[in-house]
């Protein structure tokens, strides 16, 4: 089996590998990614500690910023693109994210309902004594 | 004639929708290895998602112990975050150096990555040690249990990453940029970047959102 | 503070002579017999000089076929262990009416916990993983799996888990908590012994092995396919393998995380699932079933694939509705992650949550129904040969429909409130797991045995085994449905209700019939091995098969195929046979090339050795030994990473010599078929 990275025109690309680029272009990619990530991180920390924005919007904003930053990392550091040679990698990622979403979302939803339906402990003890 | 028509269609339709493309056969080893590791990383992320879910469920269960806002130090977290971000960047530089087989830049990139990783671990360890010494260990409350496990699990991954990083450097030193060493380097880079992505979730959900609870 | 600290101070942690159950004759005798058996086999191997052969050809082998066979062997041995647990339980419930029976409660509880754990993790899982390992690369037309050495590591870690579970028979105890170890019962305050630790660590270790197998097989199917093997030309078994292993990769980390939380509670005093300090017991049910439900489909999807292959081969027809089958498989793969709450409707999440998960559970029956119809339509109008594998497939269809229907019944939350934790539920899940997974495993075993060993299994004993197992299954489990309807709950060590008694006795009789089926299966193996020359499969295609595994000799050479086959459509090998007949066979010899194959490696075995040490030391709180095991495991990896030659070359001449024999047999076959 060959180890040619960028020559496999017909094959899918390995996750993390880039399409053919010069060293300079690749470094620029990482620099842009780093810049964007730092910017988003700074915004997150700023928003979390500020009184300047409407307070109830903060959790949503933090989650949106986190997702945006994960996207930046995926594109600029892990080189996940929408190209046809990346389909397999993206599909695997999508399946993983779906499961993450189902597990976290489902757990929070189910446990929230269970907590809500549970009689408060002191009341429960009174009922059974 | 038919040939050119197919080529023309392939260009207009880069995803080959509606066109049966003959599968070219087994993929090259580099693709296979990296893909397998990619699938493993996704499973690792699912494992983290369980700890995230546990944190979300238990974050308000402080059992009269401290709340998140009382123990988190934003400044430390910011330093940790910057360390990991920069290390992701230097790790990327080391991967480029490995691809062009430049030993100097490879060692430099990996060494800086290692240093940043160790700084991160030291800050985290001191945070943990400080909390435990104040009586706020993981056994204090369910909230602290979830906090220590999630952040600690990430920390363990970073520690394993540092160990792997040193092994990689030793491998390049002993074996040079052999094909199998380059494949492992690629997996290591994927691992390190993925840890950074998980850290984005950790600092957003645990430290920033957790301070508001 | 770590709970273990209180007993620390001795070199051996919690381990002392009281760990050996001298006062309990049953486990001691059983353990003694097993130990003597193992020693006898070891001595025989050493004295006869088979050790080098075993070491070079099997233990260190990275050949996917060998590893597949070892998985199946492990599963078969564990099936006998789990089966004897089942026999003991049936006998206990048959005689424990208004009495204590012959098993004391603490022992009975260990038995039902071990039965479930072993049957799921060390029988069903290795059996299906073994079959997938054995067959999928052959069906894809490739020479090996994506990660041969890791494959070996995965197998040996699974074996480590099985070893630890069985070790609990003689050293210490097993969990008394049921096969999922629900807290708070499994927390340190209620289960202070090592039973739950045995349970959790063996599952953690074998879970790593399963994850490795999953990653390996997903990558194999997605990245290693022969030329022309497009996704929609893969045999159905490859599709179900892909779906099942995607589920493994996505679900097993949930099990790992959940058990890690339980272990942190037990070892370091954390509060995930405790009653105190804000821990949440219900979160354990939630998380473990988020793994547990996909697990059901991890097991049954490969079985669906096996039935697809068997039904289409023995009906002499292409699989009906191939594309709908693919769609149904992938739909099950996704929906499997959306139904887990139906295992705990009664915990009280409220009507809206229960309703949504109830509906999702009913929806997942739809793609399953699609599959049943596809199999029926494949058989319709076909020229059906009722061989043993086909009998298992038809038996499955009948049995699985009943199990599926009772499943849809308990998917209705109000009905589930009545039936939860009753014998009805026990009957239901045995109905689908035995009727689906075990029948599938047996069908695959009978179907692919000639491929693995080069001779067929005896049909007469095989059919006897089927009919005894089939009948025994119904006689055992229909009474359990009835008992459940009469209000009998599961896991009862004794009971005082007279109406249940007759049904328990019938179930025990059924168990006896089932055991005869197992004995027939063993007899089949013995008889077939003795008659192997008469049953020899010289053509490599004993069943007139349709997919690529039949295109190579039985057993296949280590490299599987001298050339990567060129696939032009579905049912690749069937097409090749047809076109070969039409072209009246060109006898031109192809040009052979050198083949590179991965070298054997003891990495898997050595890793498992250290994992066993580490697992045992963790269970008994022997901390220095834990560190030693950890260092050993890391060192193994580094040594493995340092080796310079991981492949060896089979010269073209040798490939040619092996392939010529195969081609000659095949030409005879085709010309014979042409003459007819």
UniProtKB/TrEMBL annotation, chain A:
One cellular component (GO) term of this entry: cytochrome o ubiquinol oxidase complex
Family from the record: Belongs to the cytochrome c oxidase bacterial subunit 4 family.
InterPro entries xref list: Cyt_c_oxidase_su4_prok, Cyt_o_ubiqinol_oxidase_su4, Cytochrome_c_oxidase_bac_sub4
Physiological role: Cytochrome bo(3) ubiquinol terminal oxidase is the component of the aerobic respiratory chain of E.coli that predominates when cells are grown at high aeration. Has proton pump activity across the membrane in addition to electron transfer, pumping 2 protons/electron.
Domain of life: Bacteria
One GO molecular-function entry: proton transmembrane transporter activity
Subunit structure: Heterooctamer of two A chains, two B chains, two C chains and two D chains.
Chain segments annotated as coiled-coil in the UniProt record: none
Statement: the UniProt record of this protein carries the keyword Transmembrane: yes
Bilayer topology term: Multi-pass membrane protein
Location of the protein in the cell: Cell membrane
Transmembrane keyword on record: yes
Protein name (Swiss-Prot/TrEMBL): Cytochrome bo(3) ubiquinol oxidase subunit 4
Keywords on record: Cell membrane, Electron transport, Membrane, Oxidoreductase, Transmembrane, Transmembrane helix, Transport
Major localisation: membrane
Segments crossing the lipid bilayer: 27-48, 60-78, 90-111
One GO-annotated biological process of the protein: aerobic electron transport chain
Lineage: Bacteria, Pseudomonadati, Pseudomonadota, Alphaproteobacteria, Hyphomicrobiales
UniProtKB/TrEMBL annotation, chain B:
Recorded superkingdom: Bacteria
UniProt KW keywords: Cell membrane, Membrane, Oxidoreductase, Transmembrane, Transmembrane helix
Function of the molecule: Cytochrome bo(3) ubiquinol terminal oxidase is the component of the aerobic respiratory chain of E.coli that predominates when cells are grown at high aeration. Has proton pump activity across the membrane in addition to electron transfer, pumping 2 protons/electron.
Signal peptide segment: none
Quaternary structure annotation from Swiss-Prot or TrEMBL: Heterooctamer of two A chains, two B chains, two C chains and two D chains.
Keyword Transmembrane helix among UniProt keywords: yes
PROSITE patterns on file: COX3
Protein name, UniProt field: Cytochrome bo(3) ubiquinol oxidase subunit 3
GO molecular function: cytochrome-c oxidase activity; oxidoreductase activity
Family statement drawn from the similarity comment of this UniProt entry: Belongs to the cytochrome c oxidase subunit 3 family.
GO cellular component assignments: plasma membrane
Protein topology in the membrane: Multi-pass membrane protein
Gene3D superfamilies: Cytochrome c oxidase, subunit III, four-helix bundle (1.20.120.80)
Species whose genome carries this gene: Bradyrhizobium rifense
Heme-copper oxidase subunit III family profile domain boundaries: 35-211
GO BP term (any one): aerobic electron transport chain
Bilayer-spanning residue ranges: 35-57, 77-97, 104-123, 143-166, 187-210
Listed Pfam families: COX3
InterPro entries, sorted: Cyt_c/ubiquinol_Oxase_su3, Cyt_c_oxidase-like_su3, Cyt_c_oxidase_su3-like_sf, Cyt_c_oxidase_su3_a-hlx, Ubiquinol_oxase_su3_dom
Location in the cell: Cell membrane
């Amino acid at each position: 089996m060959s180890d040619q990275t960028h020559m496999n025109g017909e094959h899918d690309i390995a996750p993390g590998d880039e399409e053919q680029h010069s060293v300079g272009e690749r470094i620029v990619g990482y620099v842009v990614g780093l810049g964007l990530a730092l910017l988003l991180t700074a915004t997150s920390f700023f928003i979390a500690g500020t009184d300047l924005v409407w307070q109830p919007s903060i959790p949503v904003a933090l989650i949106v910023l986190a997702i945006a930053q994960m996207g930046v990392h995926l594109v600029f550091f892990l080189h996940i693109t929408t190209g046809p040679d990346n389909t397999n990698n993206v599909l695997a990622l999508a399946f993983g994210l779906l499961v993450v979403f189902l597990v976290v979302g489902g757990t929070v939803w189910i446990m929230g309902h269970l907590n809500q339906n549970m009689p408060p402990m002191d009341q429960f003890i009174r009922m059974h004594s | 004639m038919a040939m050119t028509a197919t080529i023309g269609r392939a260009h207009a339709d880069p995803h080959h929708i509606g066109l049966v493309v003959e599968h070219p056969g087994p993929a090259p080893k580099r693709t296979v290895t990296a893909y397998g590791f990619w699938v493993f990383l996704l499973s690792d992320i699912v494992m983290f998602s369980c700890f995230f879910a546990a944190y979300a469920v238990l974050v308000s269960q402080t059992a009269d112990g401290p709340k998140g806002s009382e123990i988190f130090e934003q400044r430390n977290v910011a330093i940790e975050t910057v360390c990991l971000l920069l290390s992701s960047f230097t790790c990327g530089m080391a991967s480029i150096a490995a691809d062009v087989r430049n030993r100097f830049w490879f060692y430099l990139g990996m060494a800086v990555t290692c240093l940043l990783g160790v700084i991160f671990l030291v800050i985290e360890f001191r945070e943990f040690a400080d909390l435990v010494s104040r009586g706020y260990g993981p056994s204090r409350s369910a909230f602290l249990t979830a906090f220590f496990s999630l952040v600690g699990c990430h920390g363990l991954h970073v520690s394993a990453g540092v160990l792997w990083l040193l092994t990689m450097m030793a491998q390049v030193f002993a074996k040079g940029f052999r094909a199998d060493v380059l494949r492992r380097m690629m997996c290591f880079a994927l691992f390190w970047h993925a840890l950074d992505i998980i850290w984005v979730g950790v600092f957003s959900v645990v430290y920033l959102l957790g301070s508001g609870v | 503070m770590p709970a273990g600290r209180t007993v620390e101070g001795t070199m051996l942690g919690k381990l002392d002579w009281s760990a050996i159950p001298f006062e309990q004759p049953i486990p001691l005798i059983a353990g003694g017999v097993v130990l003597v058996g193992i020693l006898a086999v070891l001595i025989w191997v050493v004295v006869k000089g088979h050790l080098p052969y075993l070491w070079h050809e099997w233990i260190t082998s990275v050949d996917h076929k060998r590893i597949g066979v070892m998985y199946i062997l492990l599963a078969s041995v564990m099936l006998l262990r789990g089966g004897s647990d089942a026999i003991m339980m049936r006998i206990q419930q048959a005689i424990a009416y208004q009495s204590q029976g012959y098993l004391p409660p603490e022992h009975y509880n260990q038995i039902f916990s071990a039965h479930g754990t072993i049957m799921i993790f060390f029988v069903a899982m290795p059996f299906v993983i073994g079959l997938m390992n054995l067959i999928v690369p052959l069906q894809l037309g490739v020479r090996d799996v994506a990660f041969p050495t890791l494959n070996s590591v995965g197998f040996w870690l699974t074996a480590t888990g099985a070893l630890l579970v069985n070790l609990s028979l003689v050293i210490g105890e097993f969990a008394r908590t049921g096969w999922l170890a629900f807290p708070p019962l499994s927390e340190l305050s209620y289960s202070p012994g090592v039973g739950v630790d045995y349970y959790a660590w063996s599952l953690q270790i074998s879970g790593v092995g399963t994850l490795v197998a999953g990653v390996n097989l997903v990558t194999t199917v997605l990245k290693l396919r022969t030329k022309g093997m497009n996704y929609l030309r893969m045999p159905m078994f490859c599709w179900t393998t892909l779906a099942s292993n995607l589920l493994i990769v996505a679900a097993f980390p949930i099990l790992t995380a959940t058990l890690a939380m339980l272990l942190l509670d037990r070892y370091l005093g954390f509060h995930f699932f405790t009653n105190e300090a804000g821990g949440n017991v219900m979160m354990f049910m939630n998380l473990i079933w988020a793994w547990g439900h996909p697990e059901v489909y991890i097991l049954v999807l490969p079985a669906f694939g096996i039935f697809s292959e068997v039904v289409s081969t023995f009906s002499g027809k292409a699989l009906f509705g191939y594309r709908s089958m693919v769609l149904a498989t992938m739909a099950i793969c996704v929906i499997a992650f959306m139904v887990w709450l139906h295992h705990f409707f009664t915990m009280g999440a409220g009507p809206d949550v229960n309703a949504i998960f109830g509906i999702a559970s009913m929806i997942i029956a739809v793609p399953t129904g699609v599959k049943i119809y596809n199999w029926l339509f494949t058989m319709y109008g076909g020229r059906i040969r009722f061989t043993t594998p086909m009998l298992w497939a038809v038996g499955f269809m009948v049995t699985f429909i009943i199990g599926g229907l009772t499943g849809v019944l308990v998917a209705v939350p109000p009905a589930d409130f009545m039936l939860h934790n009753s014998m009805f539920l026990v009957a239901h899940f045995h109905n689908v797991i035995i009727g689906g997974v075990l029948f599938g495993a047996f069908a695959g075993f009978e179907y692919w045995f000639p491929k693995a060993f080069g001779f067929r299994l005896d049909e007469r004993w095989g059919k006897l085994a089927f009919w005894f197992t089939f009948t025994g299954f119904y006689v055992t489990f229909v009474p359990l449905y009835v008992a459940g309807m009469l209000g009998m709950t599961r896991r009862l060590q004794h009971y005082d209700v007279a109406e249940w008694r007759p049904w328990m006795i019938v179930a025990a009789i059924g168990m006896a019939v089932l055991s005869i089926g197992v004995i027939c299966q063993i007899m089949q193996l013995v008889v077939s091995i003795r008659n192997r020359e008469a049953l020899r499969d010289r053509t490599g295609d004993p069943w007139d098969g349709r997919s690529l595994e039949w295109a190579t000799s039985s057993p296949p050479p280590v490299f599987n195929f001298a050339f990567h086959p060129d696939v032009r459509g579905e049912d690749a090998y069937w097409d090749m046979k047809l076109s070969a007949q039409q072209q009246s066979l060109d006898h031109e010899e192809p040009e052979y090339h050198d083949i590179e194959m991965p070298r054997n490696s003891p990495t898997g075995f050595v890793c498992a050795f250290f994992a066993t040490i580490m697992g045992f030391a963790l269970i008994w709180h022997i901390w220095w030994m834990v560190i030693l095991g950890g260092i050993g495991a890391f060192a193994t990896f580094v040594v493995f990473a340092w080796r310079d030659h991981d492949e060896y070359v089979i010269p073209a001449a040798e490939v040619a010599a092996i392939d010529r024999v195969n081609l000659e047999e095949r030409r005879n076959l085709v010309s014979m078929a042409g003459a007819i």
